[in-house]
Design a protein that fits this description.
Number of helices: 3
Oligomer: single chain
Number of strands: 0
Helix content: 55-70%
Structural class: mainly alpha
Low-confidence stretches: none
Distance between the termini: 51 Å
């Protein structure tokens, strides 16, 4: 049986998505992502992963 590599890529993508979602819940600022915009939400999440950062926006 031939291996389906696109399923491996999908599995990795979904795993990263779940990890980012859970980290966003733990380190988020309480504003729903729909009110922030996707770029602002992603940048806020990335910066908040840096130790010692309390508030970004």
């Amino acid at each position: 049986m031939q291996r389906l590599y696109y399923l491996d890529n999908l599995k990795v993508y979904l795993t990263v998505l779940v990890i980012m979602h859970h980290a966003g819940q733990a380190y988020g600022n309480g504003v729903p992502p729909s009110r922030m915009g996707p770029i602002s939400f992603l940048l806020t999440w990335i910066v908040r992963m840096i130790p010692g950062v309390k508030r970004v926006l």
